Amino acid sequence: MTTGTTTTADEAPLFGPESQFRAFFDDPRWALAIIRATVLEAAHPQIGAALADNSTFVAHPWRRLRNTFLSMRHMFDADPAVREREAARLNRLHARMSGSDARGRTYDAMDRATRAWVVAALFESAVTMCRLIGQPLDQDTMERMYAEYRAFLAALDGDAGELPDDLNDFWRYFDRVVEDELENTEAARIILNRLFDHLPAPALLAGAPTLWAAGRAVVGPLLGAITVASLPEPYRRKAGLPEMPGAPTLMQGAYLAAGLTRFLPEGWIDAETIIETLSLSPDSDDPRARTVAALRARMKRASALLRLLTPLSDETGPDPVPAASRITGEGRRSAEEFFRQVLDQTGDGHLDWPDLAAMAREMATRLDLDEPEETRLYDAFAAWWRELQATLDTDGDGRVSVDEYAAAVPSLAGPALIRVAEVLFDATDKDGSGTIDADEHRALFRTAFHRDLTTTDGTYGRSAFVGDFLSFMAGRRTNTPYDPLLADA
Amino acid sequence: MPRHVACVMDGNGRWAQRRSLPRTAGHRAAETTVIDIIEAARAAGVEWLSLYAFSTENWNRPGAEVDYLMRLVRRVVRKHAPLLLARGIRCRFLGAADPRIPRELAQDFEDLATLTADSRGMTLTVAFDHGGRRDIVEATRSLIRSGMPAEEVTERLFADHLPFPDTPDVDLVIRTSGEQRISNFMLWQVAYAEWVFPEALWPDFRAPDFLACLHTYRRRDRRFGGVPPQTNGDPS
Question: Annotated active-site positions of B, please?
Answer without folding.
Answer: 10, 58
